[in-house]
Each structure stands twice: as structure tokens, then as C-alpha cells.
Amino acid sequence: MQKIIKIFVLSAIVIIITGCGAKDTSNSTPTAEKAPAIESAPAKKYSRDEVAKHNTAENCWTIFKGKVYDITAAVPKHPAGPEKAMKACGVDISEGFEKNPVHASKGVKNLESLYIGDLE
To answer: Is 75 exposed, middle or buried (0-12, 13-18, 19+ CB in 10 A)?
Structure first.
């Protein structure tokens, strides 16, 4: 008899804790609210003239497909040497950049973290 009572009590506890799989069909608002969406600021706009001013190894910006990137940190790390990377400083590299298989696979992905704005 005590075994039956224990099983009954344990079953009741499980039902209370789990809600017995019952669905709430009411239209009440859930207690946990969704976090509000974070709105990002509009992208900063740069002119070709502004980008052209950033044409040194110490201050190197480039344009790729209408977006502006500060690639200064990448210049000394370029696999083909800083001189090769310097060719991108202050200019639009959209034409031809992805023709290099390494640029097409890794270069474009590396640019993502260096994005600073859009071309006007």
C-alpha cells in the first residue's frame, strides 16, 4: 500500500512539474519577452577622393564592390609581401581581385572584418 502511495505522489509531482504536456491555448503574452532587435547605424559613406587619400602602408583603404575597407593591418601580413598589398591602397580593386584564386577564396572573406563603410 505504501508503495502505491509513493508512486501516486511521485506521479503527481511529475505531472505538476511538467504540466502533463498540456498546451496553453490562451492568448496570453509569454512571461519571457524577446530581446528587442538591435538596429545598426547606417553605414558611413566615403567618396573615391576620400579613399584615394589613404594610400600608404600606414594608412591604407581600398574599395571592393562598392564597399570601403581599411586594410592597413593586412598590408604587412600579405602573403605576397607588403609591396603587393600596397597596390590596393587608395584605389578600387573590384576589377580583377577575385581573378586570383587565393583572393577569391580567402581574400574576400578576410575583407569582411576590415569593412568601414560604403562608397558614395
So the answer is: buried
pLDDT by residue (tens digit) across 46-101?
999 999 999 999 999 999 999 999 999 999 999 999 999 999 999 999 998 888 88
DSSP, residue by residue, 5-31:
HHHHHHHHHHHHHHGGG----S-PPPS
For the question of whether the overall pTM of this predicted structure is more than 0.70, the answer is no
Number of domains in the chain: 1
Interior/surface letters 38-52, b for 16+ CB within 10 angstroms, e for the rest: eeeeeeeebeeeebe
Domain containing residue 71:
45-119
C-alpha cell, 52: 584615394
**61 within domain boundaries:** yes
- Residue listed under C-alpha cell 496570453: 28
The answer to whether residue 102 sits within a structural domain is yes
